[in-house]
Amino acid sequence: MGNSIALVADYFRVSHVSSATIPNSRLSNILAKMHQGRSLTKHSLDFLQQQNLPELYRLACREITYEAYVAGLDPDYLRMHQVAQSASQAKDAELQALAAHYLAQKSNHSARKNVRKMDSEAERQLRRKREREATEAVLAAQRTRQAEWKAQRVRNCELAAATYHSRANTPGYCEPTAQDLARYFHLEHIAAAVSAPLSDLLDALYRGRPLTADELTYLKHSAPSDLYRLAFGQLPLDEYIALAKTVEAEAFARKAREEAAAAARIARERDPEYIKMMQTQALYKKYDVSLTDKSMMPRMTKLLQQIDAGERLPNEDLKWLGTSAKRYFTAPIRTAYHRLEADFHADQYLRTQNPWNAINACGHYRKCKQTEVALRLIDSIAGNRIKQPKVQSAALTTRGGVMRDLGRSSEAIQMGETAHKLMPQDYRPCTLLGAVHMELRNFETGHNWYEEARKRGAPEQGIDSELRSIFQQLDSAGREAMKSFLLAEDSHRYSWLKQTRYQETKKRG
Fold this sequence. Notes:
The structure is a single chain. This protein is mainly α. It folds into three domains: about 1-165, no CATH class; about 180-270, no CATH class; about 410-509. Helix content is about 70%, strand content about 0%. The chain is built from 24 helices and no strands. The protein has helices at about 1-10, 25-35, 40-50, 55-60, 65-70, 75-105, 110-170, 180-185, 200-205, 215-220, 225-230, 235-270, 270-285, 295-310, 315-320, 330-350, 355-365, 370-380, 390-405, 410-420, 425-440, 445-455, 460-475, 475-490. The protein is elongated and about 115 Å long.
């Protein structure tokens, strides 16, 4: 473990930093991750930035390569590392020599014990000595480094002041604006560079005014790291300019790519074909249609556009939806279709006062869940205008269906029975009575009414579909009771009830 840590510290040329060679220290763990090629967290990067190891921080941020990192290390910095490395190697050699010497001299148990004691004491003394030397070397290096940075700060200020005065004495000279300063320091890509306080600090650097400790602290935490390094003396102006140009060029290139992408998106969104495609997608989503057969798309798209525009569907399209495109005849399409048909017949009724239009409209309003509208419409039919028993029966049956939807079962039964007396051979009052009694769990009575409807021409498929719908509407106890009754009546016809998890999506008629 110890040798591995030392090797990593040697690799990064930080053997002179004591915490870099201490097992499980924060710095040694960070170096191990870097050596393994793993990315560092923001907290680790922040910690590394605080250790006065700027080149190592830039390497961790992947701003420079390892070769550039090694090549850019200060000679004094490398000497400190080499001194510490040599000291560590000397220590290891001394320890090995001591161990070999004492092991060679041991002759008995007592001698071996004394050797171990002397060996341990020698190691402790040697370790303490090396630690003191390493600490002193680090402190000396830090003092040297701080002195160098301070001297560079002074040189940077002097050079900037001289340059500023030279320019200021040039005829026609104008003081630079905040935008000019941002351009001079290659920070135009940073919005904060043209407003206080950063623009004020750029002006100070431009004129060669030394920054205060608070101003340096602000730069350290709120400005690009290279600008802070310039202000602190870690970089001369020419090196800063070279680095800032590269960063600025990358920022401008990234902005250009983003602007190009935005322009392409805007152009695409304005393209008529794209707009048409998006409108079509929205239409399919609105009506919950997901086509798997793309050959149907032209006809389906036209059909959805018609419905969405409030146009009634031609009979051939309705037939197509009920046959070839049956799996795409979704609930939203059905609702829209019935609403369009209901509104059409309701308008016809208002225009002609023909009760059949009101009856047809009510049937469609019920199927698109507009029960209250259906009730108002059927109640608007003037009773004295209905003379024919067939029309009276149909109106009563329709109103009975509305009562059924509203949960007013007794009224629905009364209207169904009256309609049946008016037209005994019409199956529609019978199916109404069958449905209401089934919902009330009067299964035998309901089944008998359905049988009467079947005898009078009601399609058996329609009856069974309605029974499935009623079955699904009941609670678990009601379903069990209805299942037992129907299977006892005809186990073959109602075999679908034997399925353990029967599901039915058809709506109640």
